[in-house]
Here is the input.
Amino acid sequence: MGTPRTGRQDPSAEVLTEAAAAFGLLASPARLHMVWALAHGESDVTGLAERVGGALPAISQHLTKLKLAGLVRSRREGRRQVYFVDPGEQAAVVDVVRLLVGRLAERETADPVPAPRTAPPGPRPRDTAGVWSHPGASES
Here is the structure.
């Protein structure tokens, strides 16, 4: 492994494989939502199913995968199993989830995507480059 100009050693293939596996688990919107929710407070399976909008068996399967990856942990409280974010080795991944999803949610609420405008009926004029121009678009 080479040392880049920053002076830091590149991570090993094993480290990159482990990181890719953790991020791969988060490619599921349901699991991403679950990690997001658990990063903000612990919950049992029923609470997660209600919050995420999934069936209990599916939520349980997702939690099993997240536990195997070390992203979440659980403890027994009476008859309930309570899940929470693992503050250990994978805390950095959870921090990335919290930061990324939080910023995307803020952007969505601050600048909602406008509804697409419909063009007036009839053919659209072409601009000088031969590309269809959009009604209301500013000229450069």
Observations:
- The radius of gyration is 23 Å.
- Residues 51 and 129 are 50 Å apart (CA to CA).
- The chain has a mean pLDDT of 79.
- The chain is about 45% helix and 10% strand.
